[in-house]
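Can't paste images in this forum, so I'm doing it all in text. The chain is below; anyone willing to post the predicted structure tokens underneath?
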Amino acid sequence: MITVALPKGALLADSIRLLQSIGLDFTAFLDSANRQLQVQDPSGTAKALLVRAQDVPVYVEYGQAQLGIVGYDVLREKKPQVAHLVDLRFGLCRLSVAVKASSPYRSALELPPHGRVASKFVHCAREYFHSLDLPVEIVPLYGSVELGPITGMSEAIVDLVSTGRTLQENGLIEIETLFESTARLIAHPLSYRLNMGDLHNWVEKVRSQILSSV
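Text version of the structure:
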């Protein structure tokens, strides 16, 4: 039996629909009355774990799950030792630099040296500004990052943007995009290499389903 780590939040419904299309039914997670964090497919061939998105690659890296679905943004931030298998092409968003609309800054390079940038993507933000050779202080925030510039604690933020509505409603604008992110299928490297639980077959089914939907 294989185990799949699924992310709570925005990617869950699409992840479950994709797996259902290849014969794995974890729709119990979509029932608001369900409180289980682990469910088994009715066929008995697989089970799924419902975990925080940031924890998906951890469960896969340590072998508690052979497969996982997670955003590319999480993989870029955490750099886990997992096999990157398929771009699932849903959950499109981007990691961007944003500032107050009233600020004078219109590109990342215009930000003041040694200024503050708030982000939950600490490593991605640090790497990006290092690539620009612009020294900044990265302020780790894990709640409403938009409050950084609003309160004056930071000149800018680095955060995920989907529609841009949250930024707009809080008087912020994007000035740079670091990268785009979509959901990815990942695997435990050794389990995949050894084809444990017929992993190759399940991965090919996913790949075929994604290609057929293009």
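The chain has eight helices and eleven strands. The two ends are 30 Å apart (CA to CA).
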